[in-house]
Amino acid sequence: MPTIFTHVVVPLAWRTATRRQRPDVRTVVTAMGLTVLPDADVIAFVAGVPYASAFGHRGFTHSIAFALVTALVALAWLRPVRTKLLSVGTFLFVAAVSHPLLDALTNGGLGVALLWPWSDARWFAPWRPVAVSPIGAHFFGARGVTVLLSEMLWIWLPLACTALVVRWRR
Fold it and tell me: How far is Cα of residue 71 from the mean position of the Cα atoms in its chain?
């Protein structure tokens, strides 16, 4: 999985790219929360749930269905004005679904259950350039630095360039 730092970059890049219909700070913070929410499933390790289970790490919380439901709950909580409903909803869904898609780009783990509940199959992207992040205290060391550098190269830099080009073109 990418680090928490990288997951929150997605809504920040989107906000940087937009001028009109720019999400407000409350919406951006909510979207940042949605980008890290799927990793709450690491509690499954403590609870003894097998990793490969639909309820294990990278299971149902890493699905498109979970992203859609959490985005809709967040949308209801934010209660944007009617004219911003579609743009805020889209922003929240993209933020939420970015988590499993970024995880699918990593070089470790079992993949993500992207199509749960229709399928328990785990999925990886065909191209996996991002180093998988160690969980817990193991992050603070040489491996953590390697992971962050990988994420900066393969996620942060492309997102920043895309956001700046989109903003410039508008």
Answer: 12
Nearest CA-CA partner of 109 in 1, 37, 4 = 1
Model confidence pTM above 0.70: yes
What would the DSSP string read from start to end of the chain?
Answer: ---HHHHTHHHHHHHHH-STTPPPHHHHHHHHHHHHGGGGGGHHHHHT--TTSTTSTTSGGGSHHHHHHHHHHHHHHH---GGGHHHHHHHHHHHHHHHHHHHTTBSSSS-B-TTTTT----B--S---BPPPPPGGGGSSHHHHHHHHHHIIIIIHHHHHHHHHHHHH-
**Identity at 92, one-letter amino acid code:** L
Reported residue count of the chain is 170
pLDDT digits (tens, 9 = 90+) for 15-74: 999 877 789 999 999 999 999 999 999 899 889 999 989 999 999 999 999 999 999 999
CB proximity list for 157: less than 8 A, separation 6 or greater: none
Amino acid at 145: V
